[in-house]
Each structure stands twice: as structure tokens, then as C-alpha cells.
């Protein structure tokens, strides 16, 4: 039976990217926009990572982007994620850059533990610091993973914060609201206001009632802008449910985003994915195509 939820959701946005040639300070070149996303690969464990067909497609998808938040990593074998990055670099085949990974501790309650990971190109992003949000009030099923990255190729944006989250569906309204608290903590910790919060927030349909939105801080506060709004559908069902979200804060990030770039990445057709493949939990992603 095929799940109605998009097991693999890729929410992407584009930033303008400017690089300085290494040969001279006076010679500048404009690169393509930087691509960033959040990728929920449902139940990413030994079974799925042993499926070469599925993982070959996952690697191709990751290679399209410069930084990806991976969610729902359930394997306890650390070498599997390390091997994934090694395989991506074999396909990347560039001497001037490589993909690297920052992975969180295991988070969750009881046996329902997962990890977050940022996989990124080291010529586009430089990891500065990061850790799991210290959730002293137990607001989250899986506390968000905060990472501060330098952005050496982005114009007017020296660094920014990424906050990745995968909420518990039945507590989605409360957890989504608490993301405002996480942002405040990150700003105080890293002294940077430019940030992006992204991931499978389960923030739609029955999980979040219309009346809930008036109490959701990250929705009410004016400094936050929702790139993935209520108009989007991140499911395969007949219902239009915007479970997966991207939220930004900070003037420099807002100036850098290509606002009309949000749209679905139809990789099913691109990679020739059959109906049978969908049963392996490989579902459509979201893409912000660069102008």
C-alpha cells in the first residue's frame, strides 16, 4: 500500500551566488545561485540504504544542491552515512570542492530516535559551529538541529544559521510555534539574525487547525517570512496539505532569495521512477528553480 505522504520531500530555495576568482582580486565571476534544501527520506536505515536502485537516485538528487538537510536518519551504523557522502564525492568529481557532512546526535523519545544531517559543498558553505537545541522544557519530540555556516560565495551575506526540524504530527502546532524560541536562542548564541528554518513540520491540514495559527509564534511574528506557504501541496493524496515548510528571517537572507523560484522538482519523470518504485518510499520532491 502506497503512503499518501511524500516520504521524500525536498524543499529548496536559491540564493544569488558571487565568487571571487583565485587568480586576481580584480577579476570577478558570477556563479549560478546556491541551492539549499530539506530532504525527508522516510525511515533512512539499513534496509533502504542497502537498496542500490533507491540510493543511486538519492545521490543524484543530493548532487543537484549545495546544502541539504537530511531528516529521519534511523540507522545506528554511523559508517552508512559516512559512506553515502563518500559515494556522493565519487560522483561529484571536482578537485576544487567536495561534499561534507555535519550530523546531529540521536534525538527522540524511547525507541523513536532519529538524526539530522547537513550535507554540503565545502566551496559554498563553511561549517562554523552547531548543536542540537537544548530543549529543557521538552517542547519537541525531536529537538531541532542548529548549524551556523559561513557563506563565502554569497553577496552581502557573510554567514547564516540553518535550523532543521522534523515535528511530531499530533504536536505539530506547538512544535512549529516553538521554532520562534529556537530562532531567538540561535540569534543569541551565534550573534547572527539571518536564518532559515526548514523541514517536515507537519504544519498543515488536520495537524494544525485554522484556529491554531493565531497562537503560532513563528507565524505571528513579523520577522519571519514563510517561503512554503499554505498554498503548497507536499503530499501525493487528493488533499492539499502543506506539511513541509521553509521559513526565513533576516534582511540579508530575504534580499538574497529568488522569490519566484519555489516549485516542484518532478524527478519521477527525470529518473524514470515507476509506480513500483513509489512503494519503496521514493516520492516527489520540492524544488525552487533558479531564474
UniProtKB/TrEMBL annotation:
PANTHER family xrefs: DEOXYRIBONUCLEASE (PTHR11371), EXTRACELLULAR NUCLEASE (PTHR11371:SF31)
Boundaries of every Endonuclease/exonuclease/phosphatase domain copy: 38-235
Disulfide pairings: 205-241
Keywords: Disulfide bond, Endonuclease, Hydrolase, Nuclease, Signal
Name of the protein in its database record: Deoxyribonuclease
Origin superkingdom: Eukaryota
UniProt-annotated catalytic positions: 114, 166
UniProt record similarity statement: Belongs to the DNase I family.
GO CC field: nucleus
Pfam families in the cross-refs: Exo_endo_phos
Biological classification of the source: Eukaryota, Metazoa, Ecdysozoa, Arthropoda, Chelicerata
Gene Ontology biological process: DNA catabolic process
Signal peptide span: 1-21
SUPFAM superfamilies: DNase I-like
An example molecular function term from Gene Ontology annotations: deoxyribonuclease I activity
InterPro entries to which the protein is assigned, alphabetical: DNase_I, Endo/exonu/phosph_ase_sf, Endo/exonuclease/phosphatase
SMART domains attached to this UniProt entry: DNaseIc
